[in-house]
Q: What sequence folds into this?
């Protein structure tokens, strides 16, 4: 092993807003806010960071001209329809019809992510 993962970092136009979205979705707190950089979670829960990128161009999944670059798969242990309702209230946008055990959404900055369930 050379090292261990410290954080997954998303470029976005508004780090506070996107951190707040994922903090609510994942049930982890905002742990640092330095203006242009915001962290949620910690070593125990896993950390996701959000970095201001004023010229950020969001992915346009599934358009290969603006690919998703990276995405999160988020496991849902509850009713997936209720989870979707809550996501949409938080500002997510559904991108595709369900496929198997996955539903694809965009976060408020346009990054795709999936809900998965058993």
A:
């Amino acid at each position: 092993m050379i090292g261990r993962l410290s954080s997954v970092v998303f470029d976005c136009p508004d780090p506070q807003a996107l951190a707040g979205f994922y903090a609510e979705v994942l049930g982890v707190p905002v742990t640092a806010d330095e203006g242009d950089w915001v962290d949620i979670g910690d070593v125990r829960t896993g950390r996701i960071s959000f970095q201001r990128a004023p010229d950020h161009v969001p992915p346009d999944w599934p358009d290969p001209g603006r690919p998703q670059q990276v995405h999160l798969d988020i496991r849902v242990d509850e009713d997936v329809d209720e989870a979707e309702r809550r996501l949409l209230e938080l500002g997510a946008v559904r991108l595709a019809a369900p496929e198997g055990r996955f539903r694809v959404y965009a976060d408020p900055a346009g990054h795709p992510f999936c809900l998965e369930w058993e």
